[in-house]
Write a structure and sequence with these properties.
The structure holds two protein chains of two kinds.
Chain A: E1 11-16, E2 21-26, H1 29-35, H2 38-49, E3 65-68, E4 83-88, E5 105-110, H3 114-120, E6 125-129, E7 136-141, E8 144-149, H4 158-169, E9 175-178, H5 181-184, E10 192-194, E11 198-200, H6 205-211, E12 214-220, H7 230-246, H8 250-256, H9 260-268, H10 284-287, H11 289-292, E13 296-300, E14 310-314, E15 324-326, H12 330-335, H13 345-358, H14 362-377, H15 396-408, H16 412-416, H17 420-427, E16 437-438, E17 441-442, H18 452-459, H19 473-485, H20 492-508, H21 513-534, H22 546-549, H23 564-578, H24 589-594
Parallel strand pairs in A: 1-6, 7-12
Antiparallel strand pairs in A: 1-2, 3-4, 3-6, 4-5, 7-8, 9-10, 9-12, 10-11, 13-14, 14-15, 16-17
Chain B: H1 12-21, H2 26-31, E1 47-52, H3 62-71, E2 74-76, E3 79-81, E4 93-97, E5 101-105, H4 114-118, E6 132-134, E7 141-143, H5 153-157, E8 164-165, E9 172-173, H6 184-188, E10 194-199, H7 210-222
Antiparallel strand pairs in B: 1-10, 2-3, 4-5, 6-7, 8-9
Classes of the chains: A alpha+beta, B alpha+beta.
């Protein structure tokens, strides 16, 4: 390395599955400075690698699938556990484009232990390109990297495979992530799973992994990067630990995980219920934290996380008594519970388990089934269209059958494996009004009728509809930074921006809070540039008609609805603040220049 | 039911109460992993050790990082500071299993010293020590690097699998040091899952391998027996 880059290994592990070539590539120190890591370094590498290839096929060998860590990863900072998977999305597309395969970038963030282990092994990121001729998995043990045969594992669900792979490796301290049958079968919203339940859920990362014939990555490392200022790092670390201890709100996370939000957000009228038709679920008490508590046996933490929001347990009610799985969480419980009008806790848990085991994004899956339930109820489709499945609201049996079909892409499952937009295009009859997506990517478990800022959050997210995107420019920039340093978004309350900056100083060297926020802005803008080049314009930053046309009919926010004027005003303000063109949404030259981005 | 994580760190007093007074310490009553391990007050020269409440552990591995940071300090400008907490160097290790169980694993301080007994180096006539010995002050297992011949017998004899020979020097590593009397893992565990307790050396102890402990926990918590040979789930 030309100069020592503190806080980083300075190395990307680059694997081409077509040729079998394994490279350790030095990272440009400027890229680390300007894009930090994680989501930020991911979009920079994606931009560079697809520079000459706008409209590249997301399932083609040239699309890089990247597993990125951040500068905090591998250091014992609270909740610095995240891995950001960045690639070109197989599940989004613009309304108009000159490119057949135009799509947004995709970034998807997962907890667990993988990102830190990547750093222990001596890398800041793993980039996989090409396509293996037969199923393989990647074996990474510090310096030793091998592409290994995975044919015997192809078709195995993630829960069993999680055990099988560790058995084969013979060491429970390997960290692994993998796809299930859904990714192998190229379901557009297949995800990448680790620890049999944590997921890089959104945006079809598992579909891209499947297209490369890559079943899994197993990693183990013994090293660690060096800090720039050890004294400052230790001081900030101690402060951070104390701050997390004092943060009262985390008691809720520890006792219930995100499941506490099921009852809470239903009460607020902003939950996704009945395919987003309503914001309140009258039977939420049957699927919420209080009802689920009896099934939970322990809390589970990601690396160095004092929150432990995952609740592992065992279903105790028939007919699925004995089913071992964690949850519900807010997203899984809403999308595979309330959004489908399922109030049978055990049935919901079965659906959640199946989504994870097949490796399906529970959010897009819940949207897809919810959309079909609504179309079926409205008689836009009949039982024949549904292959004989009686897909009524609240039916656990029909939901289970649909999950099987989607993961295997059998019959109706083949079309449904492409998500709600593809279904609406096929079904027609104005069904697009309740096809809940932005840019093809389905909405998460938060409704908009009674929560206008959420509409902007969904419409402007660079990966298509995303609830974590942030509702304002400031929030979006700071989230982009959080996703890039390797820390969990849930932990930001425990840190605050001052402590993040202090730790960053200790780890990588001098940097200011203002610089960091500008870094977040730079990342968000480069993502936008990538999308804009693919053909995404303001016309694509739209939300489904449902939110403007059908006021809520139940709950505390009964009557709430958005108006188009209100939405237009919020969006105008957004583009103006971003320094983007009001008509096209093209990032302005002045803004790009100020961020040192290509104009 | 998941345990209440909002409790502060367990004091020894609390711990005694829970261990003997209620069912909270499932492991103690049920499996006897560290059954009757607590010493009476005032006992002299007794051993002490890190006791794990598996029902409270969430597998976050903070213990690994603080153990490593303390026991592998870093010299900065002539001053010795804590290290960066590389978990590979830690003396306590968290083993993770599916279904979700985490087993922090650390020297069990076996009173009959199988590791020391296995050391083939002749006792030093002046101190009576072999190459592996129990430090008279901390009562922890310690290696004399000058006399150790790197035969790995102690690692083979270790009932838990804690002792690991260094990949190059073959000197035994990973024996708990109790961090000069203030174990960092106990101090920093965010969930109060670890305690520093005295051990009654006249009572029998049950050191177990992490996998054995995991199997018992999985059976108790999830009703699934055995880690291997599980019925392959058919989708």
């Amino acid at each position: 390395m030309t100069e020592k880059t503190f806080g980083y290994n300075g190395v990307i592990l680059d694997v081409d599955l077509s040729s079998g070539k394994i490279d350790k590539k030095e990272i440009d120190p400027d890229d680390l400075k300007n894009f930090v890591g994680g989501r930020g370094l991911g979009i920079k590498l994606l931009w560079d690698r697809l520079k000459e290839k706008p409209g590249a096929d997301p399932l083609g060998p040239e699309n890089p699938l990247m597993f990125m860590s951040g500068p905090f990863s591998g250091f014992p900072a609270p909740s610095a556990s995240r891995t950001c998977v960045v690639t070109k999305s197989p599940h989004t597309s613009p309304k108009k484009s000159q490119y057949t395969h135009a799509s947004t970038l995709s970034y998807s963030n997962m907890g667990g232990f993988f990102g830190p282990e990547l750093r222990f092994a001596g890398y800041d990121g793993l980039v996989v390109t090409g396509k293996a001729v037969a199923p393989v998995y990647l074996y990474i043990n510090d310096d030793k990297v091998e592409i290994r045969d995975a044919r015997k594992f192809w078709g195995t669900g993630t829960d069993q495979f999680d055990k099988d792979l560790i058995e084969e490796l013979g060491d429970p301290r390997f960290r692994t992530c993998y796809i299930g049958p859904a990714g192998e079968n190229l379901v557009e919203y297949a995800c990448i799973i680790n620890t049999a339940a944590r997921a890089a859920g959104r945006g079809g990362t598992g579909c891209v992994m499947g297209s490369k014939n890559l079943k899994a990555v197993a990693i183990r490392g013994t090293g660690q990067p060096e800090t720039e200022n050890q004294g400052l790092f230790l001081e900030a670390l101690e402060e951070a630990r104390q701050s997390f201890k004092n943060e009262k709100v985390y008691g809720m996370w520890r006792s219930s995980g995100t499941a506490f939000a099921l009852e809470f957000l239903s009460g607020q009228g902003i939950m996704a219920v009945k395919n987003f038709r309503e914001g309140t679920f009258s039977e939420v008490d049957k699927i919420g934290a209080q009802a689920s508590r009896k099934n939970w046996v322990r809390s589970f933490s990601c690396y160095c996380c004092p929150l432990a929001c995952k609740k592992s347990g065992k279903t105790t009610d028939s007919p699925f008594a004995g089913l071992v799985h964690d949850g519900p969480e807010y997203e899984t419980g809403t999308m595979l519970g309330a959004n489908l009008m399922i109030s049978d806790n055990a049935g919901m848990m079965k659906a959640i388990y199946m989504a994870d085991d097949y490796g399906l994004d529970a959010i897009s899956l819940g949207n897809t089934i919810g959309f079909l339930m609504e179309a079926y109820e409205k008689k836009l489709i009949d039982k024949k269209f549904m292959d004989g499945i009686d897909l009524k609201w609240g039916s656990v049996d029909a939901t289970i059958e649909m999950i099987h079909r989607i993961a295997k892409r059998q019959g109706i499952g083949d079309l449904a494996s492409r998500g709600v937009r593809a279904l609406a295009e096929e079904i027609g009859q104005d069904s697009h009004k309740f096809a809940m997506h932005v840019k093809g990517h389905e909405l998460a478990a938060h409704n908009c009728h009674a929560n206008p800022p959420r509409a902007v959050c969904y419409a402007t997210a660079n990966r298509g509809a995303c609830h974590l995107n942030g509702t304002s420019v400031e929030e979006q920039n700071s989230t982009a930074l959080t996703d890039s340093i390797g820390v969990c978004l849930f932990a930001m309350g425990g840190y605050g921006s001052d402590l993040i900056a202090k730790l960053m100083n200790g780890i990588t060297g001098a940097t200011s809070k203002t610089d960091l926020l500008q870094t977040g802005e730079r990342i968000f803008n480069l993502e936008k540039l990538f999308n804009y080049r693919e053909g995404f314009t303001r016309a694509d930053d739209d939300i489904p008609d449902r939110f403007f046309e059908e006021p809520l009919t139940v709950g505390s926010r009964k009557g709430a609805v958005l108006t188009r004027d209100q939405f237009k005003t919020m969006m105008d303000e957004f583009y103006a603040k971003r320094g983007w063109d009001l008509e096209t949404s093209e990032p302005g030259a002045a803004k790009l220049k100020s961020l040192n981005l290509p104009v | 039911m998941i345990p209440n994580h909002e409790l502060p760190h367990w004091s020894r007093r609390n711990f005694m109460k829970a261990a003997f007074g209620s069912g909270a310490m499932v492991l103690l009553g049920q499996f006897g992993v560290f059954r009757f391990a607590l010493a009476q007050q005032g006992e002299e020269n007794s051993l002490s050790m890190i006791l794990v409440d598996y029902s409270k552990c969430t597998g976050c591995r903070t213990c690994e990082t603080v153990c490593s940071a303390f026991n592998h300090p870093k010299e900065v400008n002539g001053k010795l500071l804590n290290g960066t907490g590389n978990p590979y160097l830690s003396n306590i290790k968290v083993y993770a299993f599916n279904p979700d169980v985490d087993v922090p694993t650390v020297c069990a301080m076996c009173p009959d010293n199988p590791c020391i007994e296995a050391c083939p180096v002749d006792p030093d006539p002046s101190t009576g020590r072999r190459a592996l010995y129990r430090d008279s002050k901390t009562m922890t297992i310690t290696v004399d690097p000058d006399r150790c011949i790197g035969c790995k017998s102690c690692a083979e004899a270790c009932r838990v699998g804690v002792i690991v020979p260094h990949p190059e020097t073959a000197l035994p590593e990973r024996m708990c040091t109790l961090c000069n009397g203030e174990p960092q893992c106990v101090k920093y565990c965010p969930f109060g899952a670890l305690s520093h307790v005295k051990v009654d050396i006249s009572k029998e102890l049950y050191a177990m391998k992490p996998r054995q402990i995991a199997e018992k926990l999985i059976e108790e918590w999830y009703g699934v027996s055995g880690l291997s040979g599980q019925e392959r789930r058919i989708l």
